[in-house]
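Researcher: Structure prediction, please.
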Amino acid sequence: MELVTKGRCSTLIVDFDLPGAQEVVKMGALLQPPQKPVLLAVASRAWPGTGHAFQSGADRILYKPLDPAQVKEALQASQKLLAKNRRQAPRCEMKTVVYFELDTGTLPAIGIDISEQGFAVQAPEPVPMLSKLAFRCVLPGTTSTLHGHADVIWASDQGRAGLFFSSLAPSARKLLKQWLRKRSALHRKDATRGLLAPADVSGNLSPRLVTVE
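Model: Predicted structure follows.
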């Protein structure tokens, strides 16, 4: 994972027969381009290996025993997927209050950003390292509440934490995708507007041919 975060690894192959494999893939799935690698899981042809791999965020599964032709085809496909991922920006800022339901009560936190795989928060105290932690929040700019369960992948003593969605209802996942799509479109629109000439000088501009190499 250290090599991944430093940009020195574009494809991560994880053996799901080894301990900690699920957590490694979840951490990789939380990263965003250009850091996010293509995640290939190696698993036996049986549940729960394949199920855990997909639930963790693996892009593709390679089955044991490995076939050289299968591995070559998967690596070629991973390069196409990597290029596609780097053209996208699925993570958006999410400045909203997130409520976590603990056995000891409700822990509020401020959302930092969110993607289809998970989100990051800043809490006033350390977030417990728990699985299937119930949460709810209102998506910024809407009256819609997103709720479900998430696994705490990492947490700092200062209250910052990253979570991977472990359970989202189909309706909640659809709501999140629609919100992310609208936010991404708005971001692109704002970026284009920033390239336009100010109203007070646009009338003085003459057409100019620009060559971009």
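Model: The chain has two domains: 2-86, 92-190.
Researcher: Thanks, that helps.
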